[in-house]
Amino acid sequence: MDPALRSSKSSRCPALSDDTRMRMLKILWKGPHCTKQLAPLLGISEAAVSKQLKQLTEAGFTKLERKGNYLFYSVSKETFDSLIVLQRQYLEQ
């Protein structure tokens, strides 16, 4: 496998290894939410939501948009599409 492809894939995978982050992505897949909205849905504090969203955003799985005083997070569907391509390239080698 091309080292650049392996690096891209492996640097993102740890962000998907946590159950809370996966539940968060499932909610965000349906539409943008802010930390205040996500906290009660996940049963965790806003600070914990922020910490998890930071990891997802750094890995490229979420993107954010400021609306007034709030940051709304949504899924970066382009990132998921690129992961599928990377997996296919890996499997076809």
TrEMBL record:
TM helices/strands, residue ranges: none
Keywords per UniProt: DNA-binding, Transcription, Transcription regulation
InterPro entries, alphabetized: ArsR-like_HTH, HTH_ArsR_DNA-bd_dom, Metal_resp_trans_reg, WH-like_DNA-bd_sf, WH_DNA-bd_sf
Sequence ranges assigned to domain HTH arsR-type in this UniProt record: 1-93
PANTHER family: ARSENICAL RESISTANCE OPERON REPRESSOR ARSR-RELATED
Protein name, UniProt field: HTH-type transcriptional repressor AseR
Organism this protein belongs to: Paenibacillus pseudetheri
